[in-house]
Specification:
By secondary structure, this protein is α/β, with parallel strands linked by helices. 36% of the residues lie in helices and 18% in strands. The chain contains twelve helices and 17 strands. Bound molecules: pyridoxal-5'-phosphate.
């Protein structure tokens, strides 16, 4: 601390988040507890990370075993859990190879780099531009900030990293401007998460994919929030008639242990050779053990089918609130990624819900975002519904 600056904030943690006045110290399944012993139903799942519930026993036991053996060894050596996790990811998607990193923003950074490198190799140096969409969210690093089509998030950080162009989301006519001689790829969310829980229109996406195919643009889907079963299938693209060239994954991949990944089809993956990209921690033994255990749990149980059924029940019941309350305008989303469009400020409803021991989120100013764990039960959904009824009744 220097003597000649005015101290406005003495907290040791930088104040980049507006935190709720709650300190969480314990979690189990769909519940978390604060430091005074209050129990909350967590329908945020740690922002779509702990998709299989807090302190999932099956994942915990595998991570504990790995803690006894090896924590880190770098990517200069083979890591068996990394190779197994990569195999499971490619066997269960349309992709062929995986690059591991530690977060969503890093996964998108890797996608942007592979798109530029691919185009550089096959088209030449003029094709560097990645098209993204208004109201998207792709991360907070300098390149992913530029990829994010929201001025309020970019505010104050100029100049933006060059090489991005934004089109309106779900606008079929605007797709005529998709390809230019400078374009190398398209990066999009299949349900805009932070941007208000807006699913992609199938006809729009089909046309977008067709243009990518014709113009040899990489079709890159950011499944950081929609992936790992959140929308009812392992990845959201599996509900559309498209085959992405690149898929980015993070949030739910380690069920709360930090890990990210960029999956690519062979033609794109070939653009990365030794030295093209790297990460010290990426694919670390602990993180990939968590990722492998998460994938094995999802593939080896009926969680996806169960959660998809429960999500249908949840959404049908929520629809009743649209009829019942003036301030509830619409319900939208996919699977267990649910948006409640409200009149007034979404944050006010989130605050009220917390007073009733229910944790939920916002997605923009007037959308309440609900992200139940995929392992939630009908009983828990009924608790959630009765709290929401009280929240809107006041
Ligand atoms: C959360 C999120 C990111 C950023 O992930 P971080 O791990 O916070 O870097 C990127 N894209 C989407 C769609 C997200 O939801």
């Amino acid at each position: 601390m220097s003597n000649n600056t005015t101290i406005t904030n003495t907290h040791p943690v930088m104040q980049t988040y507006n935190r709720f006045p709650v300190t969480l110290v314990k979690g189990k399944g769909s519940y978390v507890w604060d430091d005074t012993g209050n129990k909350y139903l967590d329908y945020t799942s740690g922002i779509a990370t702990c998709n299989l519930g807090h302190v999932n026993e099956q994942i915990k036991s595998k991570v504990s075993d790995q803690l006894d053996n090896l924590w880190h060894c770098s990517n200069l050596y083979h890591i068996p859990t990394q190779e197994k996790l990569a195999s499971l990811l490619v066997e269960n998607t349309c992709t062929d190879q995986v690059f591991f990193c530690n977060s969503g923003a890093e996964a998108n950074e890797a996608a942007i780099k592979i798109a530029r490198k691919y185009a550089h190799d096959v088209k030449g140096t003029d094709a560097y531009e990645v098209v993204t969409f208004k109201n998207s969210f792709h991360g907070r690093t300098l390149a992913t900030l530029a990829a994010t089509g929201q001025e309020k998030i970019q505010q104050g950080f100029a100049p933006m990293t060059p090489g991005f162009r934004y089109l309106p989301y779900n606008d079929i006519d605007a797709l005529d401007q998709l390809a230019s001689i400078n374009t190398c790829a398209v990066l999009l969310e299949l349900v805009q998460g932070e941007g208000g829980v807006v699913p992609a229109d199938p006809a729009w996406l089909k046309k977008l994919a067709a243009i990518c195919e014709q113009q040899d643009l990489l079709l890159m889907v950011d499944e950081i929030q929609t992936g790992m079963g959140r929308t009812g299938t392992l990845f959201a693209y599996q509900q559309y008639e498209i085959e992405p060239d690149v898929i980015t994954v993070a949030k739910g991949l380690g069920n709360g242990i930090p890990i990210g990944a960029m999956l690519a089809k062979q033609k794109a993956a070939d653009a990365f050779t030794a030295g093209s990209h790297g990460s010290t921690f990426g694919g670390n033994p602990i993180a990939t053990t968590a990722g492998l255990a998460t994938m094995e749990y999802l593939l080896g149980s009926d969680t996806l089918q169960q959660s998809d059924q429960l999500a249908k029940y949840l959404v049908t019941e929520l629809q009743a609130l649209v009829e019942k309350y003036d301030q509830v305008e619409a319900i939208r989303g996919k699977g267990m990624l649910i948006g409640i469009v409200v009149k007034g400020n979404a944050i006010d409803y989130v605050t009220k819900a917390r007073e009733h021991n229910l944790l939920i989120l916002v997605a923009g100013p007037n959308v309440v975002r609900v992200l139940p764990p995929l392992t939630t039960t009908k009983e828990e959904i009924d608790i959630f519904l009765s709290v929401m009824d009280q929240v809107f009744a006041v």
